Amino acid sequence: MTVETPLIGYSNAEVVDAGLSGIRVGVVTFPGTLDDRDALRAVRIAGGTGVQLWHGDHDLKDVDAVIIPGGFSYGDYLRAGAISRFAPLMEQITAAASGGSLPVLGICNGFQVLTEAHLLPGSMVKNNHLHFLCKDQRLKVENSTTAWTSAYADGSEIVVPLKNQDGQFVADERTLDELEGEGRVVFRYVGGNPNGSRRDIAGITNEHGNVVGLMPHPEHAVEAGFGPDSSASGEVETRGGVDGLGIFTSVLQKLVNK
Amino acid sequence: MTTETTSKKFNIDTVEHAEQTPEQPLPWAELGLKENEYQRVVEILGRRPTAAELAMYSVMWSEHCSYKSSKVHLRQFGDKVTEAMKEHLLVGIGENAGVVDIGDGWAVTFKVESHNHPSFVEPYQGAATGVGGIVRDIISMGARPVAVMDPLRFGAIDHPDTARLVHGIVSGIGGYGNSLGLPNIGGEVVFDSVYQGNPLVNALAVGVLRHEDIRLANASGVGNRVVLFGARTGGDGIGGASVLASESFDSSKPSKRPAVQVGDPFAEKVLIECCLELFKASVVEGIQDLGAAGISCATSELASNGDGGMHVELTDVLLRDPSLTPGEILMSESQERMMAVVTPENAAAFEAIMDKWNVEYSWLGEVTDTGRLIIEWDGEKIVDVDPRTVAHEGPVYERPYSRPEWLDGVQADSFKGDRPADGEQLKAAALELMSSPNMCSKDWITNQYDRYVQGNTALAMPDDAGVVRVDEETGLGVALSTDANGRYSYLNPYDGARLALAEAYRNVATSGAKPMAVTDCLNFGSPEDPEVMWQFAESVRGLADACQELGVPVTGGNVSLYNQTGGVAIHPTPVVGVLGVFDDVARRTPSGWREDGQAIYLLGTTQNELDGSEWANLRGHLGGQPPALDLDAEKTLAAILVNSSRDGMIDAAHDLSEGGLIAALSEAALRFGVGARIAIDELCERDGLDAFTVLFSESQARAVVAVPRSEEVRFNDMCTARNFPRIRIGVVDAESESLDVQGHFTLPLAELKEAHEATLPKHFA
What we know:
The structure holds 2 protein chains of 2 kinds. By secondary structure, chain A is an alpha/beta fold.
């Protein structure tokens, strides 16, 4: 069952690459999900085809990759992501992703869901300053070999919006050492740690590199005019930052070349 | 009789019982009714009201719901609307929110409301449910909410109670709004000791819909079913509209906390999506949100706007607290609830959508043509009223008003305080101004709000207006700004309201949008004080006149009275929101410059107008007359700004308002951290003023703009053609990293930025 037809129409104006547009990327909506339409837009701008997925369904609709977007699923009243992990669709996603095949990206609340579902280690707790924080955040791409980061060079930097209340990544020292040792830290905060995350970690991957979770929002830095005011690659127009687009083109390129 | 039924039935006061016991005393005074009002209820019914009827009348006839003191004045908003102003108005005043045609089949609905009293008593929940309430108004019109804004006013920044309110209110707005997925795109934050015991928490929401999707709050179609859905009804917010929002605070009375509602943003987010799906499937005939006065309001308004009758079984209401009495159920202001009218044929489709979203619902009754609103409790009639007498025919007061005697003295007391003269003093004054509570950066607050969600935000704070895209294919979009200046209104309420409108109008035009329509939230003290009532009457007259002159209609809004503690009222604070339209938001103008070498122009002229200014405020002075207003000049300025944006003649624009030219230059430089070289001597000479006055005066109808070199001739020609004064006052200097007011002082941007940004964290972080 599809979720809705948005009142705000999606543009079909871009010239789409026939190969890329054949790639179907599912975006899951839970009750309380907020950035689902934004993730669908990002997939479309990157050239792929976005597919709406409903948490209560048992059908992945033959998608080639899945994005679990941001929001406050089930209000995050218990613990962010704690209830969503039990959604019927999550069983399908977990089964398809844990073997290393289905690319899965968890953004913000989606990252929290992935840790609750044990697809990724660690957990997110309340920001160390105890406030919701919305800012344009500089990140360093530490691993460009994952399904979602191949468009970037190792060590390159990007600016994408960060917006959350429970964004402090925590894990025990052994897990952190493991993540570092295996090169599974994908994104690190640069220019100041915004929330107390251990070792400035903003995003991580699983051992296969197909599942990536990050707290900042790349889907809000994909369209000039509606992104951050800055980019790590130099001057941009007002709200012209599109550094997040590479996340979405990465997975499409990987899948089209498969 | 079993204990179960006794506890369920209480000693219910049926209509029959009321007829038999005319002498039974009722707690009408405790519920906020005046004696003459109670007598009027008895007269309407021809008997004493039942407890449930009394509950309904008391909330619906409260100041908050009935506008009984303000109605006679508010009529002007309708009376002064010309046919031309109605051209783009699809729905005007009187519905949940006004609806404006923005072209291409799109419409926008927007409204600002107050949640002042609850936010003082319980800041987090008060502010949170303020957002929730206004968002439900927008959904009720059939629209998808797309953004919110929050004009806030607190007491003195260093008062011991201010931190409690700032923390609670800001996190309440963020906690609720962020969880709904609505970008927060602007608002205001003002600190002034007059708001110490009465902070103002106003909330604006804007929604988008197609013309054909407009929904209205009426119950039509005899036999159609009435359903309540969303959260269960609990004991929160009982008497919120009557005893809390419609009385002044008084330390001798018990705490009002139980009258504050408690919000659940997750339930509201689900309700939004669920309602949009209902609209899309066309399964509701009429819809009304439950806000102030809860079921009393929803049933009586739906019935009186429709076929005139409704029959409801109140025992079918799903409860969080089974001990609630019928009267409490009718008055409860539990959040996240909606009432809809559904045809019997669509009932199954309605239920399927509810089930999909796991939203609880209960069928309460049906639409009738009896002209009566009948409410039963377990089959016994407890309410039998003409719904119009509850919803629309409440008392109307022509409250006495009189111009305060102290006003002449205040208006004669012009600012004579210190006027810095040399460069060092001017620099210190600029830093003092830009770090002051009202002029400092509000990032510490606005960074707690999500401005990105939905991916359509083209501008947000600290730019002049918030801008969101409506149509992704064409770029069609809207701009919104809210403004008020309580000090101006205190000095001259008629002009103050006009100035508030002028500033919001100017802000919208500065962003590049064509101003189209107005919403207002009129925050005042007690209407029972003739001086306050005069301020109110003058403000409404001023706003209605100015709307007519500018050609922008008021589409809806809210009145908040009794914002006073003891005998001390707040400054009259008419918050005005203006909506503007863009053909394409890609051409919106940001408030800061960034391109090296662009020419900086000042549009408009400056007079010696420091009365009521931020500078006078910093010197502890409030007297004289607010700045003079020339609405023709505002119109021309707006036309220049909109055309320049459309034709690519300017790359940045920032309006001049509080803090004058120095504030505008500082903010424009700090927006992207790009400096400028400014020369004001020619300007001083042209306007016959000294440097201090030119920099700190708050004369209206002015803006600074950055013009690319290639566009200077065209830009000047346009100003000449429109006979509008402008003067080149400098150039953007990307290398200097300072704001250099040549011959007077140089402000390094790092120093200015630190002073500007440190104030709120120092007090609240």
